[in-house]
């Protein structure tokens, strides 16, 4: 039976986590691409072995786990190393996402990904929802939450697709500019729409 899958995205500090938590509270299975990206490089996973074989034993710490900091510094210095890393991790991430979405036991499933459009993960979905917020608000929320300095946050935002591009690509947009209750009020009618889409696909 075909499953209706919604792609949920938004920039840093936009509130996509708050949105995905609300959908989960409605009984909807959420697959988080960031969590999957961490899972596929855990100890014992094929992707971690491939990373070690390509880069060398220095990518592992004393426990045999991925030394994220060392690898992050390496790919920052050598841009071609990032491409090599992504050629290992992206197929593994995509495979795991598809497996988890197919196993979802809810009326529809959600794929949450900050890079939904950039990594073509939107191709795994039938519809996309952008949680949007002004850049000023994004910076404020991210600095309060992660205790990162504003320059770091601006760098992350610059590396992501612009708000305007995401707005053009998304099927649905929710502006998360106020209270959590206001966000939830906007999500409820969309959730009801998605339940109907799911029924149409399955009928």
From TrEMBL:
- Pathway noted in the entry: Cofactor biosynthesis; coenzyme A biosynthesis; CoA from (R)-pantothenate: step 5/5
Places the protein is found: Cytoplasm
Q: Which domain of life is it from?
A: Bacteria
**Gene Ontology molecular function: any one:** dephospho-CoA kinase activity
Question: Gene Ontology terms, cellular component aspect?
Answer: cytoplasm
Look at the named UniProt entry and state the broad enzyme category this protein falls under: transferase
Q: Does the keyword Protease apply?
A: no
Under Enzyme Commission nomenclature, its number is 2.7.1.24
List keywords of the entry alphabetically. ATP-binding, Coenzyme A biosynthesis, Cytoplasm, Kinase, Nucleotide-binding, Transferase
What reaction gets catalysed by this protein?
3'-dephospho-CoA + ATP = ADP + CoA + H(+)
Keyword Transferase recorded: yes
Biological process annotations from GO: coenzyme A biosynthetic process
Quote the record's binding site residues for ATP: 13-18
Family matches, as SUPFAM superfamilies: P-loop containing nucleoside triphosphate hydrolases (SSF52540)
Under the heading Pfam families, the entry gives: CoaE (PF01121)
Please state which protein family the record places this protein in.
Answer: Belongs to the CoaE family.
Described by its record, this protein's role is as follows: Catalyzes the phosphorylation of the 3'-hydroxyl group of dephosphocoenzyme A to form coenzyme A.
User: What's the protein here called?
Assistant: Dephospho-CoA kinase
């Amino acid at each position: 039976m075909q499953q209706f899958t919604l792609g949920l995205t938004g920039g840093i500090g936009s509130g996509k986590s708050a949105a995905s938590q609300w959908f989960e509270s409605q009984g909807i299975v959420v697959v988080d691409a960031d969590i999957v990206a961490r899972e596929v490089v855990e100890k014992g996973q094929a992707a971690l072995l491939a990373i070690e074989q390509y880069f060398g034993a220095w990518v592992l710490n004393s426990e045999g786990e991925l030394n994220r900091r060392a690898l992050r510094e390496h790919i920052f210095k050598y841009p071609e190393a990032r491409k090599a890393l992504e050629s290992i991790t992206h197929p593994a991430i995509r495979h795991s996402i598809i497996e988890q979405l197919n196993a979802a036991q809810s009326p529809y499933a959600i794929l949450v990904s900050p890079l939904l459009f950039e990594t073509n993960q939107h191709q795994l979905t039938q519809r996309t929802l952008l949680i949007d917020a002004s850049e000023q608000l994004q910076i404020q929320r991210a600095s309060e939450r992660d205790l990162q300095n504003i320059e770091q946050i601006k760098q992350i935002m610059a590396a992501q697709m612009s708000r305007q591009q995401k707005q053009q690509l998304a099927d649905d947009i929710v502006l998360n500019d106020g209270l959590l209750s206001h966000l939830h009020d906007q999500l409820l009618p969309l959730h009801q729409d998605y339940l109907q889409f799911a029924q149409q696909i399955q009928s």
